[in-house]
Amino acid sequence: MEMGENQTSITEFILLGFRLGPRLQMLLFGIFSLCYAFTLLGNGAILGLIALDSRLHTPMYFFLSHLALIDIAYACNTVPQMLVNLLNPAKPISFAGCITQTFLFLTFAHTECLLLVVMSCDRYVAICHPLRYSAIMSWRVCSTLTVTSWVLGVLLALVHIVLLLPLPFCGPQTVNHFFCEIIAILKLACADTHINEMTVLAGAVSVLVGPFSSIVISYVQILYAILRIHSVKGHQKAFSTCSSHLCVVGLFYGTAIILYVGPRYGNPQEQKKYLLLFHSLFNPMLNPLIYSLRNKEVKGPLRRVLGKQRSL
């Protein structure tokens, strides 16, 4: 990066993390390591079950496999660096590594927003138009929707990175976060970042408020369709297929909207750190638990696999 004569370019950043005592940081290292391991194992198990059991080769579980893949990528992008910082708080991250981490985080966040909308549309078609479900949610349509979510996620993240890269960074080099979050990085720029901040806000509104509104509309219509079902068994089956997705939507959109769209009060930077910790570590760990514990179609294959392992 070319700088003026009296300025120096920053080639690395230091992530401040949580700024706690050494003993507490070691305790957090152990807890976060376990959560990271559970995240990889849980989402890996979901991917394995979907791949191995032909009964799960349906649009719903096709989308769920991509959600599990995003959760694994989320954790792998932010948690290892956080664990390194807990052991060695002064260890820096390169400028290129920091920008890459920001880009990947934004990509996965945008893609998950769009994928959750696609999953709600799938549930809407399954419950409100069951006789036409196979025709509407064909494999071609499912693949197109999934690829579109990933492509839009990458393009939206690129917009932020393209606006971020020309900014001069001349000091300080300490990032008040546990990973390279875009707002925390913008605060270190030696230039006006008003356009960048407005772009972040506009992007958050477009991928959070708009999609969340469409999910709410879909589930209002789903609820209306469920109430018209006369059998108790039909009610239970319909609710079981939607409750897991609703829990995941609530966790993801709830924290994300508070982070990037909600009002600012108190010490927002410290609040954002802990909310993003939940968003990037605990959300990916909870998602496979929600789907496996509340979904009989997932628990069945899991029991069969565990039964085979015991017999061996």
Distance between the termini: 59 Å
Low-confidence stretches: 1-8
Kindly provide the radius of gyration, computed on alpha-carbon positions and rounded to a whole number of angstroms: 21 Å
Total helices: the number is: 10
**Which percent range describes the beta-strand content?**
under 5%
* Helical proportion, percent range: over 70%
> Helix and strand string, N-terminal first?
EHHEHHHEHHHHH
Would you mind describing this structure in some detail?
With 312 residues, this protein is mainly alpha-helical. It contains ten helices and three strands, in the order E-H-H-E-H-H-H-E-H-H-H-H-H. Helices cover 75% and strands 3% of the residues. A three-stranded mixed β-sheet has the order 2-1-3. Helix 1 runs antiparallel to helix 2, helix 1 runs parallel beside helix 9 and helix 8 runs antiparallel to helix 9.
Helix/strand layout:
Layout: E1 12-15, H1 22-52, H2 59-87, E2 93-94, H3 95-128, H4 133-136, H5 139-164, E3 174-175, H6 182-186, H7 194-227, H8 232-260, H9 268-294, H10 296-311
Parallel strand pairs: 1-3
Antiparallel strand pairs: 1-2
Helix pairs in contact: 1-2, 1-9, 2-3, 2-9, 3-5, 3-7, 3-8, 5-7, 7-8, 8-9, 9-10
Defining key terms:
312 residues, mainly alpha, three-stranded mixed β-sheet, 10 helices, 3% strand, disordered N terminus
What is this structure, in a nutshell?
The protein has 312 residues and is mostly helical. The protein is 75% helix and 3% strand.
